[in-house]
């Protein structure tokens, strides 16, 4: 899953407000091996105020239409990729989700932790899939003091509850993806434990997305305050996720991530 930020305050410094530039980034990511493009108009950074609903829609909706019209003609890295690439929209507000799903988005990457069934109902109504991220409280609010006795056990309980909520809202089980929400309301030890025990989430029977790219936990472990310096740590986390059964990896540098995932997977195959 390649990250396209249609904003000017992305934590990794790779955002843009120009739709043409964002489309070119998406095209290059698909050429580099992306199966999914995840576009968002608002940074998840908690030291930035939420932008207005209308502004978030204004930034992203033109990209959705132009991406869907152009993607079939874009080159891919290899025949193993999803073709055409899936379009994911990264938002948490139902008003934005409704507008972007109506425009044709196929996956709702919901960072709200599904406090109610609104986004699940919207995904079901539009025939889209839903990515449920674990966190606590309202998005865009720092949760640096949250601690967990057993963060993985908490997530097993959380996802069982949210999957039931989504299914009762009309979403089929096969349309649900789980995201442990690294760095969101979690401390260094929590994030490392989630990376070590991803297989416990995989056992819930739904694809698990690992948002490993340039995360704060990598910077903490390696002493790297600048997000762009954390790619080597990203590949290490990606390799751990592949070995523990994760299915999707949300990344900034797609070419290197796709190569790393492919190589780790091939090494793990038991065949002549």
What distance lies between the first and last C-alpha atoms, to the nearest angstrom? 30 Å
Give the count of structural domains. 1
Mean pLDDT across all amino acids: 93
Q: Describe the oligomeric state of these chains in a short phrase.
A: single chain
Helical content (DSSP H or I, runs of 4+): 40-55%
CATH superfamily: Dihydropteroate synthase-like
Look up the CATH topology.
Answer: TIM Barrel
Order of helices and strands: EHEHEHEHEHEHHEHHEH
Q: How many β-strand stretches?
A: 8
Q: What is the topological layout?
A:
Blueprint: E1 2-5, H1 19-32, E2 36-40, H2 53-70, E3 86-91, H3 94-102, E4 107-110, H4 118-125, E5 129-133, H5 151-168, E6 176-179, H6 188-196, H7 198-202, E7 209-210, H8 216-222, H9 231-243, E8 248-249, H10 254-268
Parallel strand pairs: 1-2, 2-3, 3-4, 4-5, 5-6, 7-8
